[in-house]
């Protein structure tokens, strides 16, 4: 939607592959490869077993020793490097199958390996926003509205978690991003204030140069009962589970039609039905119906142009209330897209499409595009075909913005 509104956009995925989280992941893989339970602070689920087995098989296939047989530190590093690569490969594959591909896959570890963290800290130090206390290095974020100052280098010399985010924001700005839009999960709500303070500490404008969207939890319901478990992940429902249950189009559309700051309840039974109660079916069926109407019109000799090649659209011939409503709704589309982009609210497009589909279905029930019997083709039929085809184009455009297909037959 930002691109449709004229912006140049780079889509970027940030891999958290540095620090304690990845250490726990590596220890969990090693434990499972040894046949032991995952560490208390580690990760469980069938996917950990799968990755641990794959890492071992990959090492043996390459003629390397069984990583389990290595000294503890080497074994953990073997499972970390290969396990992280495999995990991120699966993430990319899952996203691609969902119709989501990124221009850049950025690794947090890169910031630490290249010295980007140190450079970002030095820049803030030069600006006078860094101080030392209790053996640690702090960023004075309270000067920019945060509720307390933040440790960025701990007393043991290790970089704090926020240091990577500081360096990453600066890296994006130095790569030419005028507006950095970051999507975070619901458990990161408390992170907004400190990151906005970081933005201001670099001399940027919070809310413009840095924008943070907080997504909420998605709850799945089947047969009236919450779906809580995934056989593969152990504790969560995966994206693959959702796609397997309802398909890519229904999954994408159902997620896009809700505001990002609202929790989402997805009824798997409803999304699997080919009925008007299913919102994605309702909109896609409107598109398929417009295609069928155009097909029938061609069979009956109705075209948008007269025999002499002149356009036959005459809005004065659209005199029914359903035609007025449909015309009015179509004119709203550019404004809806611009508003959705400006407010970062793609659900506005989905809700608009549902309203447009409703107007079209009502019009379809009241007006004919093709002549009856021996009735002659007139500009009324041709004008109605224009209205039909305009609806088809707008529905297709809107679905395309949401990454949902516009089927021609259903």
Q: How is this structure best described in words?
A:
The chain has a three-stranded antiparallel beta sheet with strand order 3-4-5. The chain folds into four domains: 13-98, no CATH class; 114-214, no CATH class; 218-271, no CATH class; 279-401, Isoleucyl-tRNA Synthetase, Domain 1. β3 (130-133) and β4 form a beta hairpin. With 410 residues, it is mainly α. 50% of the residues lie in helices and 10% in strands. It is an enzyme of class 6 (ligase). Its EC number is 6.1.1.19. It catalyses: tRNA(Arg) + L-arginine + ATP = L-arginyl-tRNA(Arg) + AMP + diphosphate. Pfam families: DALR_1, tRNA-synt_1d.
Topology:
Blueprint: E1 12-15, H1 20-33, H2 46-61, H3 72-97, E2 104-107, H4 108-113, H5 116-126, E3 130-133, E4 136-139, E5 150-153, H6 161-174, E6 180-184, H7 191-201, E7 210-214, E8 218-222, E9 225-227, H8 239-246, H9 248-256, E10 264-267, H10 268-271, H11 279-299, H12 321-331, H13 333-343, H14 347-366, H15 379-401
Strand order of the largest sheet: 3-4-5
How much helix is in the residues?
40-55%
Kindly report how far apart the N and C termini lie: 27 Å
Give the CATH superfamily of the largest domain.
Answer: Isoleucyl-tRNA Synthetase, Domain 1
Order of helices and strands: EHHHEHHEEEHEHEEEHHEHHHHHH
Instruction: Assign the CATH topology of the largest domain.
Output: Isoleucyl-tRNA Synthetase, Domain 1
How many DSSP E strands?
10
Q: Please report the first level of CATH classification, the CATH class of the largest domain.
A: Mainly Alpha
